[in-house]
Design a protein that fits this description.
This protein is an alpha/beta fold and about 375 residues long. It contains 10 helices and 12 strands. The radius of gyration is 20 Å and the shape is globular.
Length: about 375
């Protein structure tokens, strides 16, 4: 039996296989509201045969969006618009659904990637980003506003309020975004956090605010859905956040009984030096899984079915996530199952499509016509 296509559980969520669709920003919302693009996009992914679908980074307040086109969940209109997408996905698929809640911090107010991806100043329709410290992401940018006590409290409550909306929408899990240089990661990294109060300086102090947010959300959703965190396990910059500090953070997540950890890297500094290659982040996930026992998702240039199978079979991670790879090939799980001799779920409307010799790809199914 294929390891990749063996079942796995995240708390009370039963996954039919170990394939996770990673959250991928679409930059296509209107005032934070999901629309027809999201309906089509997530409907397509819900039919992919993966074990878990995580909806893209969703801003907990308007100023927390990466771009003006990013999805949001801070008001009733956002909730109603996303409910339409969730309902459609539920109607056509039994795939478990999660959502990633996020605040972009100093990386907010950016142009969409296809418009250059750079900072939008307030004079051009952007807004003033906030951050742990008044340190810009790139030297040529205007500095963000350093958060004061009231700002910290506001954002923490925004995470909780968005989590409560996610519960009403019926998501099975929530992933808090503490990676890729966004706000919670900014607090963790000494490259972005130069505070001299209770939230900066030592590792314990830099971890304090992210853990306060996690604790507040955990208290709000306890017993009603699973909670996980996405981390950047290293900044890939000398003197930045690294795997040793991340291990301390991961241990704190384990002590809190979180359901999973999703292990990525980088994003907090344009000075990062990453040696890209197939599975270049898997060793980070492997160490976190080995030393904490947390259910662990590995991600990053995992594109080949045999590569993914090896990661699960060798115990390097419990799940593998695909992002760009599944955008390119939305039926990647089907093709992986075919290559690995496994079966995968598909809607009956598609049962007639497997090529000759793969009649068992979708399991013991029957079709007939007169």
């Amino acid at each position: 039996m294929s390891s990749l296509f063996s079942p796995f559980s995240i708390g009370r969520i039963a996954l039919p296989n170990r394939i996770v669709i990673a959250p991928m920003c679409q930059y296509s919302a209107e005032e934070g509201n999901a629309n027809d693009w999201h309906l089509m996009h997530y409907g397509k992914l819900a039919l992919s045969g993966a074990g878990l679908l995580i909806v893209e980074a969703t801003g907990v307040e308007p100023e927390g969006r990466i771009t003006p086109g990013c999805l949001g969940l801070w008001n009733d209109a956002n909730e109603a618009a996303l409910q339409r997408v969730v309902n459609a996905a539920r109607k056509i698929s039994g795939m478990p659904l999660a959502i990633q809640l996020a605040h972009a911090g100093r990386k907010a107010s950016s142009h969409k990637p296809w418009d250059g991806g750079q900072l939008i100043p307030p004079t051009e329709g952007g807004w003033s980003p906030v951050a742990p410290s008044a340190i810009p992401h790139a030297p040529q940018e205007a500095p963000p506003q350093a958060l004061d006590a009231a700002g910290l409290e506001r954002i923490k409550h925004a995470f909780v309020a968005s989590a409560e909306r996610a519960l009403r929408l019926g998501f099975d899990a929530i992933e808090l975004h503490a990676a890729h240089g966004y706000l919670l990661h900014q607090f963790l990294s000494p490259l972005a956090n130069r505070r001299d109060d209770a939230y900066g300086g030592s590792l314990d102090k830099r971890m304090r605010y992210p853990l306060e947010v996690i604790d507040a959300v955990r208290a709000a959703v306890a017993g009603r859905c699973e909670l996980g965190v996405r981390v950047s396990a290293t900044d890939w910059v000398e003197g930045g956040w690294d795997i040793e500090e991340c291990m301390v953070f991961a241990a704190a997540l384990r002590e809190r009984g979180l359901g999973f950890i999703h292990v990525s890297s980088g994003g907090v500094s344009p000075m990062q030096k990453i040696a890209l290659g197939p599975g270049y982040q898997v060793h980070l996930a492997e160490r976190i899984k080995r030393e904490t026992g947390l259910p662990t998702i590995a991600v990053g240039l995992i594109t080949d079915p045999k590569q993914a199978e090896g990661i699960i079979a060798s115990g390097q991670a419990d799940m593998v996530a695909l992002a760009r790879g599944i955008l390119y090939d939305p039926h990647w799980p089907w093709h992986a199952a075919a290559e690995l001799g496994a079966t995968v779920s598909a809607p009956p409307q598609y049962w007639r499509c497997p090529p000759r010799g793969l009649e068992k790809l979708f399991g013991e199914i029957r079709t007939a016509q007169r």
